[in-house]
Structure formats: structure tokens, C-alpha cells
Amino acid sequence: MSRPCPCTSKQPYDRCCGPFHAGTARPATAEQLMRSRFSAYALAKVDYLIATRSEAKRALENRDELAQYCKSVSCVGLKIVHKEKGGPADDAGIVTFQASLQANGRRSLHIETSSFARESGRWVYVDGVVKE
Question: What pTM, to 2 d.p., does this model score?
Fold first, then answer.
């Protein structure tokens, strides 16, 4: 049995986000993609974070900055607040979440409403609005 998944699903990593990160499975819903991206931040899976961005925004990602960010923050917990569409039969979805983060000994709460869409049959992260 593997360690608990960082996405706080209460599932083992190897049966939750692990297969997505390994490329042996694809998220079936926008929420699964969002959770797997949270876990990717927690585990510094930079290639996965870039690969799961929309094609239009993928080239804008800075691999070094993303890797540095992943190293500088601890992803403590995740709570799904709201979902709109984003199911297996949908082409778009919205997930609002709260991510509990820790950096430099200080905890913060990142609240974001993220938009997801299907590109070539797979879910991608389009963009997000962060609550200030």
C-alpha cells in the first residue's frame, strides 16, 4: 500500500493521482484533474503540470519558476467547495477549491475557481480566478 494521496482524497496515492502522474490513466472528470494537479504541486511533478495546461497556455509556463514554486511551498490540504459540470460526458467544467498551503513557516489559504475543458479528449486546466 502506498502513502496517502496528497489531494486528501483518503485514497492511496498509487490508486488515486499516481496513475495520472505516471501516464497510465487519464482523469475522467475536471475534479480528478484538479486534484491530480494539486498533488503534482505537492510532489513537484512539473512536467505533469505543464502537460495538463490548455494548449494555448502551455508555452507560457516557465519550467524553472514552476519547479522553484513547488519546492518553496508545502501543500497541506485540499477542500472542494463547488463543482459545475466537468463530468465524464461534459466538455467543460468549473471547480472551486480551497488549498491550504505553507511557505516560510506561514500557512495560507488559496481559494480559486478553476476552469477546465477537454482538448483532444482529455481534461486540461484553462485558467483560474483567485479570491483575494
Answer: 0.96
